[in-house]
């Protein structure tokens, strides 16, 4: 029982991170339309919000949060990532979100210390 | 201090920026036009090659390599990243590359082990 608890505290849990990401995007961007002048502030706010919530989890992890915002105009976008880490403890979570005028892709990578 | 020097070497020295840029330029994208059928293969190959080269450095780091390829049609694209880590030992490097029909952004993050 104790072992189970300990490993939950030191593994990357995708569901809870996914929820943090979704909440951050909804809060910062929500129904706003893509605006060139504001997108800089949105990407910064989204990653900052995510990171604050993630550090509140109080787990022995280092985090990397990556956010991409793309205007919807028919362009193709492909993203890929690969990681060299410890499969037992480290993990990642990518959330793809959209509204009427933009696509938002947020990736969170968690590396156990 | 030794580890810090190695970190400086990798991230402020020439490896990351030039090597990563070469990996994107020479092997995979070069003069190709954006192609929806091939782009999946390209992004996978770029991240794989970058990671292989980084691991060969044999340093006590975990690595994350991300790559985004976007077709040029006038759409706006913005990327940002933020990291919660040890600022003295960990680091990142981002390379932006383009040709006539597409943009490519490659980011490398390196996190020190202990």
UniProtKB/TrEMBL annotation, chain A:
Family statement: Belongs to the dynein light chain Tctex-type family.
Domain of life from the UniProt record: Eukaryota
One BP annotation, GO: microtubule-based movement
InterPro entries given in the database record: Tctex-1-like, Tctex-1-like_sf
Membrane-spanning residues: none
GO annotation, cellular component aspect: cytoplasm; cytoplasmic dynein complex; microtubule
Name of this protein: Dynein light chain Tctex-type 1
Organism this protein belongs to: Poecilia reticulata (Guppy)
GO molecular function: dynein intermediate chain binding
TrEMBL record, chain B:
One biological process term in Gene Ontology: cell division
Gene: DYNLT3
Keyword Chaperone: no
Pfam family, one: Tctex-1
Family: Belongs to the dynein light chain Tctex-type family.
Protein name as it appears in the record: Dynein light chain Tctex-type 3
Subunit structure: Homodimer. The cytoplasmic dynein 1 complex consists of two catalytic heavy chains (HCs) and a number of non-catalytic subunits presented by intermediate chains (ICs), light intermediate chains (LICs) and light chains (LCs); the composition seems to vary in respect to the IC, LIC and LC composition. The heavy chain homodimer serves as a scaffold for the probable homodimeric assembly of the respective non-catalytic subunits. The ICs and LICs bind directly to the HC dimer and the LCs assemble on the IC dimer. DYNLT1 and DYNLT3 compete for association with dynein IC (DYNC1I1 or DYNC1I2).
PANTHER family: DYNEIN LIGHT CHAIN TCTEX-TYPE 3, T-COMPLEX-ASSOCIATED-TESTIS-EXPRESSED 1/ DYNEIN LIGHT CHAIN
Highest taxon in the source lineage: Eukaryota
Function as written in the Swiss-Prot or TrEMBL entry: Acts as one of several non-catalytic accessory components of the cytoplasmic dynein 1 complex that are thought to be involved in linking dynein to cargos and to adapter proteins that regulate dynein function. Cytoplasmic dynein 1 acts as a motor for the intracellular retrograde motility of vesicles and organelles along microtubules. Probably binds BUB3 as part of transport cargo. Required for the efficient progression through mitosis.
GO cellular component, one term: kinetochore
Lineage: Eukaryota, Metazoa, Chordata, Craniata, Vertebrata
Keyword Transport part of the UniProt annotation: yes
GO molecular function: dynein intermediate chain binding
Alphabetical UniProt keywords: Cell cycle, Cell division, Centromere, Chromosome, Cytoplasm, Cytoskeleton, Dynein, Kinetochore, Microtubule, Mitosis, Motor protein, Nitration, Nucleus, Transport
Subcellular location: Chromosome, Centromere, Kinetochore; Cytoplasm, Cytoskeleton; Nucleus
